[in-house]
Write a structure and sequence with these properties.
Elements (H helix, E strand, L loop, with lengths): L7 H15 L10 H19 L7 H16 L2 E6 L6 H9 L15 E6 L4 E6 L6 E3 L5 H4 L11 E8 L8 E5 L8 H10 L5 E7 L6 H13 L3 E6 L6 H17 L7 E3 L2 H9 L3 H6 L2 H33 L3 H17 L27 H23 L1 H9 L5 H10 L2 H7 L1 H17 L3 H12 L6 H24 L10 H7 L6 H30 L8 H15 L10 H8 L1 H8 L1
Parallel strand pairs: 1-6, 1-7, 2-5, 7-8, 8-9
Antiparallel strand pairs: 2-6, 3-4, 3-5
Helix pairs in contact: 1-11, 2-3, 2-12, 3-11, 3-21, 4-9, 11-12, 13-14, 13-15, 13-16, 13-19, 14-17, 17-18, 21-22, 23-24
């Protein structure tokens, strides 16, 4: 049965009702990460229930449903930069992201939306309006697709350009969107910008001191304020005026914002050009002077403390509109469920005491690496085992020692096998096996009680404490951990400490003297683990939403990386025997061995 059409008025009223219900006080909204993530999963379940009715709906409805899944899976939050041509929108984005990779210049940008999001490596992808396949290009080729000079009138038929940059600020789903501008001499540019505005979750209006707040920009300011969307106003090119002249222009813009009941606290004076130069040269004082630092602090505060709430508000509005178009017998229970979710949502708890939203942490800034101790030990053991498999075949002294020590533990015996040939094993192992057989025969001939025989057999079969490779491993671990501990004790700060797996992390702590350093290390370890957990959850959601291509390299590798962090490298076999197990589980024992 086809869906019963609903009037625009009814749809707008229903949407307004749900949006109003979802509204919470924007100031001070802090959504706990765990509650927010779990809530996204509940919304995904609701969309799956709606998808069973997609067969009776049109292609447009199914496309919008897929778009909702995609937005939920990637948790995309569009921060849209708008303004007239030559205001410095792209320069400001470069300054905020501390990169000069986005093309700027005096040539107008063509009618193409450019979205900048997180990627494990630098990449640009061209998306066409036709059915042409997406096309990856080098960053240096971007001007050929997004400028009026390289792509006049958008003759290439580009619909959107997606740029991926390894910038920590973008990692949590933020996308900076560069628009062609408003009031452009190229009419299509203005139309493209206006058509994209509904996709925006927050807006940054970039004007400049040379002609602050044009008529087109003021009209845009009016429409965004009326829509209740978060808005920042950045007045660029402050380096062109004296402080007194700047203050006069800012007062004028502030008065205009006040007439619209806007938030003048989100008005900032900046020099994108000087800010970018200062960031690239790591000059903190110059970054402050450029105004970029103050703007960036407020923007980050908004993105990290209010982004979740804004995302859910936008998602609610889209979900209500979509579900309302289903036949009434299908839409009513789904809308009721959505209403129940709203009442249980983090937004409904905005006025209650909730866990503070996360700030940008150490672990946000770079991908989680492998445990440096595991790496050193693994490399050392590979070299040692490679030499050992040769020596027990050709060196009588080593073969004798190998036999006297009872061979290797079970784990390292199989590692030795992986590096040896059948001929090598057949040359080196017989003396060991013959010695083992002789000991078993001797035990059997001694007789005695059954329990005593069992104990004696176990003693010769599990002589791991004498394993040559285990002892070499212990020496390598000790050397690496001593080096890390010495550096920490000397510098008094963890600094850029590399990643450690949990087994080696617990072995390091007893060698640290300062409790403050131990606390810092422990907090950093928690941040690294939390980051991996987030990446795994994001990957699972994207996989469930059939959006695996959205997963970053870190998210794809998160499961394997988490196991390495939790249990140590699998080629090291934690815990490999009782002796070393006691070493890293006993604080006193660890301190004794390391020191």
């Amino acid at each position: 049965m086809p869906a019963k059409p609903i009037t625009c008025h009814a749809r707008e009223a229903k949407q307004a009702e749900f949006v109003k219900l979802a509204q919470g006080s924007r100031e001070g909204v802090n959504l706990g990460l765990r509650a927010y993530e779990n809530y996204k999963f509940a919304l995904a379940d609701l969309l799956r229930s709606a998808s069973v009715h997609s067969g009776s709906m049109g292609d447009d409805w199914r496309d919008r449903l897929r778009d909702l899944f995609a937005r939920l899976a990637e948790d995309r939050f569009n921060v849209v930069f708008v303004g007239r041509f030559s205001r410095g929108k792209t320069s400001l984005m470069n300054a905020l992201l501390a990169t000069d990779r986005l093309p700027t210049g005096i040539v107008p940008i063509t009618s193409v939306i450019t979205s900048i999001g997180y990627g494990s490596s630098e990449k640009a992808i061209i998306k066409y309006g036709s059915r042409l396949l997406d096309s990856p290009i080098a960053m240096e080729e971007l001007p050929l697709y997004i400028t009026q000079h390289g792509n006049p009138g958008n003759v290439r038929g580009v619909k959107q350009v997606e740029v991926q940059l390894p910038v920590g600020m973008l990692r949590r789903g933020f996308h900076f969107v560069d628009t062609p501008g408003v009031g452009s001499a190229v009419t299509e540019n203005t139309r493209t910008t206006e058509n994209f505005l509904p996709e925006g979750d927050a807006f940054i209006l970039v004007t400049s001191y040379d002609s602050a707040l044009s008529d087109e920009e003021f009209q845009f300011l009016r429409s965004i304020t009326a829509a209740g969307k978060p808005l920042f106003v950045a007045v660029n090119k402050q380096d062109l005026l004296s402080p007194e002249e700047r203050e006069g222009a800012l007062n004028y813009i502030r008065d205009q914002i006040d007439t619209l009941n806007g938030e003048s606290r989100r008005l900032f004076s900046v020099s994108a050009r000087e800010g970018l130069q200062a960031k690239l040269s790591a000059d903190g004082d110059k970054v402050e002077e450029s105004g970029i630092a103050a703007f960036e602090r407020e923007l980050q505060r908004f993105l990290l403390s209010e982004k979740e709430a804004e995302f859910l508000r936008s998602f609610y509005a889209r979900s209500v509109e979509l579900l309302s178009e289903l036949p009434s017998q299908a839409s009513k229970p789904l809308l009721n469920r959505l209403d129940e979710l709203r009442r249980d949502s983090p937004l409904a708890s905005a006025g209650k005491a909730m866990p503070a939203s996360r700030s940008i942490r150490i672990s946000e800034a770079r991908p989680v690496g492998s445990c440096v101790v595991c790496r050193d030990v693994h490399e050392a053991l590979w070299r040692y085992l490679s030499q050992l498999q040769y020596d027990i075949s050709f060196d009588e002294n080593v073969r004798t020692l190998f036999t006297q020590r009872g061979g290797l533990c079970s784990f390292h015996s199989w590692q030795l096998e992986s590096l040896s040939s059948p001929q090598g094993l057949s040359s080196g192992f017989p003396p060991l096996l013959e010695s083992l057989a002789a000991q078993l025969r001797e035990i059997a001939n001694e007789g005695g009680e059954a329990r005593n025989v069992s104990i004696k057999v176990r003693a010769i079969a599990y002589s791991q404490a004498s394993c040559l490779v285990c002892h070499h491993r212990a020496a390598t671990e000790k050397e690496t951990l001593l080096g890390l501990a010495a550096g920490l004790n000397e510098n008094g700060s963890p600094g850029a400490l590399p990643t450690l797996c949990m087994p080696h992390f617990t072995m390091l702590l007893p060698a640290i003297d300062d409790i403050k350093i131990i606390r810092q290390l422990t907090l950093r370890q928690a941040e690294v683990i939390e980051r991996l957990a987030e990446d795994m959850r994001r990957y699972a959601l994207k996989h469930d939403a059939v959006r695996r291509f959205l997963a970053s390299a870190e998210e794809t590798a998160a499961a394997a990386q988490a196991l390495k962090l939790f249990a140590g490298h699998r080629q090291l076999g934690f815990p490999h025997d009782e002796h070393l197990h006691k070493w890293w589980t006993s604080g006193a024992g660890a301190r004794h061995v390391i020191s």
